[in-house]
Amino acid sequence: MKFRTPAQCTHVASIGLVAGSILMLAGMASGAMPFLLYEMVMMFLLACKGLCFTSTVAMAMNEEHNNAGTVSSLIGAVIFLFGGIVSPLVGIGSITLSSSLIFVVCAFLALHFDLLSRRPSAA
Fold this sequence. Notes:
The chain is an all-alpha fold. The protein has helices spanning 6-30, 35-63, 68-90, 95-118.
């Protein structure tokens, strides 16, 4: 699959994250998700996550190419911060259900920020 711009890649990956995480949540909530289907959905989610990470970093580096090191460290710090916030939440209740719910929330956040970045700036 080839994308014209990193923004298009991020948009497709964000939509994929939302769709995959909803499928994961539905399967985990039903309690009848076969292991092979779980693995296939998880691989799809990881592929979307990889597309999202690489394309957003590419866009950030393109916007601030003079401060590439600073941008890279800020992105790493934000990812580390989100990991620190999300990791204790996964242990609440059933780990499969709470993990799936966290996936859905984070996927919708990713899509929200993607759509927010597509709005024309007021400047």
